[in-house]
Amino acid sequence: MKSLGKKNQTITPPEGMEPEDVAKRLDISIPAFSKIETGITDINLSRLEQISNLFEMSVVQLLTFNDMEQEQKFVNELDLVNKKLTDREVEIIELQKKVIELFEELRHNKATA
């Protein structure tokens, strides 16, 4: 569960809620909450449910928060690469057409000479 703490670092508390507020609402000390955030302290299922309720997300969402964020980043990058690839394919097709046209022109000029 230590990786959960690392994931919690990126979870934004509800608007206007500071880490001190989060600790208070979880009924733990600020240092204890900090240790959860940094992954120093393992947390049990009960604490995990408290945190997920506080942040208004399911336990699964809490556990996969960074995974979903990373997946979306990967999808965005993949879309960008696919677009670049499609653009290059269009350029290649246009260049192939020009090569064919030049070849036909050369062949025509050779036939008439």
What is the compact description of this entry?
The protein contains five helices and no strands.
- Specify the overall morphology: rod-shaped
Radius of gyration: 28 Å
Broad CATH class: Mainly Alpha
Mean pLDDT, all residues = 82
Explain this structure to me?
The chain has 113 residues and is an all-alpha fold. It has one domain (2-112): Orthogonal Bundle (434 Repressor (Amino-terminal Domain)). It is 78% helix and 0% strand. It is built from 5 helices and no strands. It has helices at residues 2-8, 19-26, 30-38, 45-54, 59-112. Helix 1 (2-8) packs across helix 3 and helix 2 packs across helix 3. The radius of gyration is 28 Å and the shape is rod-shaped. The model has no long low-confidence stretch (mean pLDDT 82).
Task: Furnish the topology, listing elements before pairings.
Blueprint: H1 2-8, H2 19-26, H3 30-38, H4 45-54, H5 59-112
Helix pairs in contact: 1-3, 2-3
Primary descriptors:
single chain; 113 residues; mainly alpha; 434 Repressor (Amino-terminal Domain); 78% helix; 0% strand; Lambda_DNA-bd_dom_sf
